[in-house]
Design brief:
It is an enzyme of class 1 (oxidoreductase). It catalyses: (S)-2,3,4,5-tetrahydrodipicolinate + NAD(+) + H2O = (2S,4S)-4-hydroxy-2,3,4,5-tetrahydrodipicolinate + NADH + H(+); (S)-2,3,4,5-tetrahydrodipicolinate + NADP(+) + H2O = (2S,4S)-4-hydroxy-2,3,4,5-tetrahydrodipicolinate + NADPH + H(+). Homotetramer. By secondary structure, the protein is an alpha/beta fold. The chain has two domains: 148 residues, Rossmann fold; 106 residues, Dihydrodipicolinate Reductase, domain 2. Helices cover 33% and strands 25% of the residues. It has eight helices and twelve strands. It has a seven-stranded parallel β-sheet, with helices on both faces. A five-stranded mixed β-sheet has the order 8-9-7-10-11, covered by helices on one side. Helix 1 packs across helix 8, helix 4 runs parallel beside helix 5 and helix 6 packs parallel to helix 7. It is elongated and about 65 Å long. The structure holds NADP nicotinamide-adenine-dinucleotide phosphate (NAP).
Length: 268
């Protein structure tokens, strides 16, 4: 394996996720931080901003400025949906492999960006979830649903989350639906005496969303069978939990061409 360091640019370097990415890069001696971007952070040292050592990398206000002054191999973006598509395109056109954690891409945009990556002969990844534990939870749930097709999902998030159910629970439900035989669960005569009591309906089964202060991100997938239940549960406690996945992605993206959607597709 090559001993060359991978040069990483971090976009959204002042954000909660971006600062974790900066720390992760600084803690891995096979990676080198070469650029950092945040529109309103000012010209501060990216390492100091993340609560670590001085790096000599000054946060740039724009991606163009940052890429012009650094030889980046990989760009990691945790910003806002309005900026992520443009950042990804700029990155690919500059020959820099994008690793994107920001959500909100349309299927058409993903196809276009995949073609651009292939034209340039570089890899890229858009991953709505970088948590290795959450991806495993989804895979295990899909596997279990073949043998125990009666299932419900309960997901827990902080009370300020806007969307319900969570993207992860919908993705889990999709994978379960692909893996199990079609089945409409429960009593066909069931009636709700309080609206919403049975949760959201998805392809024959239910998803329940709990929203409480103090909760970060958790999900339980519960299977019921004759005389038994099986629970598959994943708990996220903070943003650092996404970083092992981002670290794997930064290294893996150096080895293929084209844009991959979904972290699960780069897990061996
Ligand atoms: P945050 O703390 O609000 O940080 C947002 C960052 O984006 C800041 O650095 C901000 O810089 C920057 N930014 C804002 N507008 C920008 C623009 N037009 N161009 C470039 N940068 C811009 O948010 P966060 O909690 O870190 O989350 C960031 C994103 O990651 C969100 O979309 C979130 O949904 C996603 N996320 C993904 C995963 C995953 O596993 N894929 C996990 C967690 C979060 P300024 O402060 O200078 O404006």
């Amino acid at each position: 394996m090559s001993t060359e360091k991978i040069n990483v640019a971090v976009v959204g370097a002042s954000g909660r996720m971006g600062r974790e990415v900066v720390k992760m890069v600084l803690e891995d001696e096979t990676l080198r931080l070469v650029a950092a971007v945040a529109p309103s952070a000012g010209p501060v040292d990216a390492g100091i901003f993340a609560g670590r050592r001085e790096t000599g990398v000054t946060v740039s206000a724009t991606l163009e400025e940052a890429l012009a002054s650094a030889q980046a191999d990989v760009l990691v973006d945790f910003t806002v949906p309005q900026a992520a598509y443009g950042n990804t395109k700029t990155s690919i056109l500059s020959g820099v492999r994008p690793i994107i954690g920001t959500t909100g891409f349309t299927p058409e945009q993903i196809v276009e960006l995949d073609e651009l990556c292939k034209e340039r002969g570089i890899g890229g990844l858009i991953a709505p979830n970088f948590s290795i534990g959450a991806i495993l939870m989804m895979k295990f749930a899909a596997q279990a649903s073949k043998y125990m097709p009666h299932v419900e999902i309960i997901e827990y998030h902080g009370d300020q989350k806007l969307d319900a159910p969570s993207g992860t629970s919908i993705k889990t439900a999709e994978l379960i639906s692909q893996a199990r035989q079609e089945l409409r669960q429960g009593n066909p005569k069931e009636e709700e005496t309080i609206e919403g009591a049975r949760g959201g309906y998805y392809n024959g089964f239910r998803i329940h969303s709990v929203r409480l202060p103090g909760v970060f991100a958790q999900q339980e997938v519960i299977f019921g069978g004759h005389g038994q239940t099986l629970k598959i549960r994943h708990d996220s406690y903070d943003r650092a939990g996404y970083m092992p996945g981002v670290n794997v992605a930064v290294k893996k993206v150096m080895t293929y061409s084209g844009l991959i959607y979904g972290f699960e597709h780069i897990m061996d």
